[in-house]
Amino acid sequence: MPxxxxxxxxxxxxxxxxxVERPASVVKELIENSLDAGATRISVEVxxxxxxxIRVSDxxxxxxxxxxxxAFQRHATxxxxxxxxxxxxxxxxxxxxxxxxxxxxxxVTLTSRxxxxxxxxxxALTGGGIVEEGKRGCPPGTSVVVRGLFSNVPARLKFMKSxxxxxxxxxxxxxxxxxxxxxxAFYLLVDRRTAFQxxxxxxQRDVLAQVYGRETAQAMLDATGDFAEIGVSGLVSPPSLxxxxxxxxxxxxxxxxxxxxxxxYAIEExxxxxLMIGKHPIAIVNLSLPPRDVDVxxxxxxxxxxxxxxxxxxxxxxxxxxxxxxxxxxxxxxxxVGPLAAPGGDRSFERQLAPVEPVQxxxxxxxxxxxxxxxxxxxxxxxxxxxxxxxxxxxxxxYLVDQHAAHERVLFERLKAQAAKREVEVQGLLDPLAVQLTxxxxxxxxxxxEALAQFxxxxxxxxxxxxxxxxxxxxxxxxxxxxxxxxxxxxxxxxTAGSDLVEPIAITLACRGAVRAGDTLTPEEMRExxxxxxxxxxxxxxxxxxxxVLHLSSSRLEREFGRQP
Length: 565
Ligand code: ADP
Ligand code: MG
Prior knowledge:
Distance between the termini: 70 Å
Low-confidence stretches: 334-364, 366-374
Radius of gyration: 28 Å
CATH architecture of the largest domain: 2-Layer Sandwich
CATH topology of the largest domain: Heat Shock Protein 90
CATH class of the largest domain: Alpha Beta
Largest sheet: 8 strands, mixed
CATH superfamily of the largest domain: Histidine kinase-like ATPase, C-terminal domain
Number of helices: 17
Bound molecules: adenosine-5'-diphosphate, magnesium ion
């Protein structure tokens, strides 16, 4: 094909795609504009996941009527003039791309009034072109309404997830801006229902209580530090409080919410040896450093930054978090903590997470699923090592079985079979248990509640982002049901909407319900576990794909002991 210059329309749509990826990216740009305009109250509304309608209103500086059309011109901004200004940038926006990009892929109406002006004005655009403008009475501040996002870009529309998922991302985003700007009041309305609200003029810990629940907020440790002109502040979870997903780590650089693998890693490194494999901390970490030391212009959506002195940034974060953790381990200044956290020294952290409970014989009750082929020979149990591994003898040598992984496999297959027949054993709770949810978890519960019910969960909405747990699968007997629900909602959130949820739910439940490393098992329990493992369809791996069994063959043993020439 010969080289051709793209038409303005095509070029603009392509450029818009970089800034506006989904409804949450529109909300992000609009909130940033409101914050840059000095707003102290910002309300956000979405309908139909934001594809139908997004509205962001603020009480900020407003836009003079005669400048309104400029706001929709490409590379028009009031925030910088020259390239050098980026060295001292203190606003969130600066590219002058957001409003024109949004207008290219939707219908936008902007209404605004600077407080000094008597009248307000509005401008309406569709597909990037102005369709109407004029005067309009309104309170001081700015309101942007976006309708029919991507309705003129069918290719992009196809990539949208369910409205509930998109709304969940918006909730998550608003929660993060509320965390970064606790002095600002945020209000989020999803499908005409209040989803989230902060009062403004509060602290990050207060906002965190809104987002992750009061207990979590109380348990969080203060992390602060100063290193090489980099100030670090924030809240990090004690090692006894962790989550199965990395998405509870939030990083703000000069109050900009950014994704940074490097800094996430720095935070997790600080917890080295304190968390179980697969567990991640909850952390809100704020970095403040001279604007010239950080390049914010590396990503069209400004969600990534580059540090001039990466090593220093890494070190500053790691030290501050580590110091918070060691202080708390030494019994340093810890705020009053809820029941989720417990005091303790270094090595006891794992045990706090995984309370040692006697295994219930019922957990190892008979399995209904007959194995199609014996992929594991009949094993004779010899004993238990470190309360973690079962030693067994087979026809060809010795077998070491990871008791947790093996039990996970057994429970996983049993749960899957029972769920298919809707016969999962249920345990009713005498006292219903209230569980605090994040906005995102609440959306996930709305989407996937049906699938959870199939596994015997009876969960009712209880308002104020709390749900009531009335019954749980019996496999969770003796376990923390609240933590299991939170784990489940987080793991479901990472899958794609509409896909089969039976597997991910069964995996999480099996993991939660299985005996743990450290649990003492009786010989009878071990024998029963081996019988059941032998009958599973894939006895050699746990549902996560890790091995359940290590085999030391007779010939290998002979070789190792020099019994063979
Ligand atoms: P940028 O934020 O990068 O400058 P935008 O396209 O997001 O570019 O906005 C263009 C301009 O419109 C801003 O520079 C600002 O002057 C004005 N503007 C946009 N939103 C608001 C708002 N909520 N309040 C006041 N001014 C705004
Ligand atoms: Mg902007």
